[in-house]
Specification:
- The protein is an alpha+beta fold.
- The protein folds into two domains: 48 residues, 3-Layer(aba) Sandwich (Ribonuclease HI, Chain A); 140 residues, Nucleotidyltransferase, domain 5, CATH 3.30.420.
- The protein contains seven helices and nine strands; from the N terminus they run ββαβααββββαβααβα.
- Strands 4, 5, 6, 7, 8 and 9 form a six-stranded mixed sheet that branches. The protein has a three-stranded antiparallel sheet with strand order 2-1-3, with helices on both faces.
- The protein is rod-shaped.
- The termini are far apart.
- 28% of the residues are buried.
- About 2% of the residues have low confidence.
- One of its GO terms (molecular function) is magnesium ion binding.
- InterPro entries: Ribosomal_bL9/RNase_H1_N (IPR009027), RNase_H (IPR050092), RNase_H1_euk (IPR017067), RNase_H1_N (IPR011320), RNase_H1_N_sf (IPR037056), RNaseH-like_sf (IPR012337), RNaseH_domain (IPR002156), RNaseH_sf (IPR036397).
- This is ribonuclease H.
- Its cofactor is Mg(2+).
């Protein structure tokens, strides 16, 4: 009695008739079947096919899974104890003051000056050398002609320079909120002097006498003219001087 073994088909197995074998293999792509004389041989043929199929399936499944990689060994680096405790201090940049503090050191001075001019000619000058300094000046100013803020500021600067010379100062920083004084002494005075105290248009410089006095007091001194600040102790001294009428 023949036995028909279907290794690859619709339903693999051992069949006793050719008709049953055909039902499992007809129209099945890649079908594998074979006729055997004994049932044992037929079953071995089918079982080999199943084993091969299962092995292929397991290999395919294994290849589809991502390979597991062994974790990288952890490496501990021992740092010296000094390195663990050492801290780098933050660098703090000290902001330099915009204006130097007033005072007299040797033959170098820093002063603050200011001027006020009220109606009816009430004017005053202030020269500030430092807190409670005996050199501080608070004076009423009486000038000929029409008093203006610029004229009074020029006289305040001349007063400070005259005082500096009396103290033996050689280098001085003058801080004043009056831009006319600063520009006159840093930009215009040298040109006016060359032109005989006349403007570029040939006209006499306004308040030339006041400016000539300031230029004379500045002669021989190393002077730094600084614009600002407004208010402060020099302004207070100037106001106090103006009220002493």
């Amino acid at each position: 009695m023949p036995f028909y073994a279907v290794k690859v088909g619709k339903k693999p197995g051992v069949y006793k008739t050719w008709a049953e074998c055909q039902q499992q293999t007809v129209s099945f792509t890649g079908a594998q079947f074979k006729k055997f004389d004994t049932a044992q041989e037929a079953e071995e043929f089918v079982n080999k096919g199943a084993a091969v199929k299962n092995l292929a399936a397991s290999n395919a499944a294994a290849s589809s899974k991502p390979a597991k990689t062994a974790p990288a060994p952890s490496v501990q680096v021992k740092r010296p104890a000094t390195e663990l405790t050492e801290t780098v201090p933050e660098k703090k940049t000290e902001k330099k003051p915009k204006f130097a503090p007033p005072g007299l050191v040797g033959k170098t001075a820093v002063v603050y000056i200011d001027a006020v001019c009220y109606v009816k000619g009430r004017c005053g000058v202030g020269v500030f050398w430092g807190e409670d300094s005996p050199r501080n000046i608070s004076e009423q100013l009486l000038i000929e002609g029409t008093p203006t803020m610029n004229r009074v500021a020029v006289h305040a600067a001349a007063r400070a320079l005259r005082q500096a010379k009396e103290l033996g100062v050689e280098s001085i920083t003058i801080n004043t909120p009056n831009s006319f004084v600063v520009q006159s002494m840093t930009q215009w005075a040298s040109k006016w002097l060359q032109n005989g105290w006349k403007t570029t248009k040939g006209k006499p410089v306004t308040n030339a006498a006041d400016l000539q006095e300031l230029a004379q007091e500045a002669d021989g001194l190393d002077i730094e003219w600084v614009l600002g600040p407004k208010g402060g102790d020099a302004s207070r001294l100037a106001n106090e001087g103006a009220r002493n009428v």
